[in-house]
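Summary for the steering committee. The consortium agreed at its last meeting that each partner would contribute one worked example illustrating the joint modelling workflow. Our contribution is presented below. We chose a case with several input lines so that the handling of multiple components could be demonstrated. No manual editing was applied between input and output; the record is shown as generated.
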Amino acid sequence: MDSSEILAVRGLSAGYGGHAVVSGIDLSLGRGDILGLLGPNGSGKSTLLRAISGQIRPLAGSVVINGVDLGDAPERAKSGFGLAIDPPDLPGALTGRQYLQLVASIRCCAENDWLGGNVAERLGLKRWIDRLIAEYSLGTQAKIAIAAALLGAPPLLILDESLNGLDPLAAFEVKRVILALAASRHQAVIISTHVVEAVPGLCNRAVLLAEGSIAREWNARQLAEASHAPGAFELHVMQALSEPMSWRRR
Ligand SMILES: Nc1ncnc2c1ncn2[C@@H]1O[C@H](COP(=O)(O)OP(=O)(O)OP(=O)(O)O)[C@@H](O)[C@H]1O
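What follows is the complete predicted structure of the assembly.
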């Protein structure tokens, strides 16, 4: 494996009850990559991220995180990524601080071990930190999930629609944190989103999932070009989705 490769997904199929929802997925992320994962509802974005994060077992193929095969050494591989938990799955009976302490103890780091300052404060969590997560709004829950995912600066950061529900200031701060992580070239980020227009300014790679397969990919140059023309990237995505499956991935 290339030492700069943080995520290597090869021939991955995954789904539920033995039925594949995503199949034939190949992905390689290096240090400094920010991958935007796009796709219509039900196209398999969350399923793919669940397979990459070891929440479901692949039906075929492999996932290697920072050089560790998830199938061979799941616990060691899992220490290579931070995942922002879906707000309904957060432990509502803990305070934000207790949750950060819990995640920090699992990651063997301090509860304020973030690259680039106090992320909890930057996301506006200071006045919520000693209150129960169950009392948080959805957006505030998303913020604590992101802050926890970033603890200990894991090589890979996985955000599944985590920008949803954030107020503009918090979304701006999360984007700044992500861009700084990528600029440090120690980490890679994979972020699924329906906010197509945010992708060219935030990501240097993008893939479009359709019916469980990668239908189209964009590299840094293509995203940079699209970012100069308002609406251009959204148009590319909509065009790709309107093409028959057999035309895609050119
Ligand atoms: N736990 C589950 N058990 C069985 N089927 C599931 C489960 N979770 C998702 N699916 C099915 O897998 C398919 C892909 O769902 P998935 O949530 O991965 O899509 P998505 O692209 O993330 O969608 P969205 O944009 O709506 O969040 C859907 O048909 C869905 O019904």
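The pocket of adenosine-5'-triphosphate is lined by residues 16, 21, 39, 41-47 (CB under 6 Å). Residues 85-154 form one domain.
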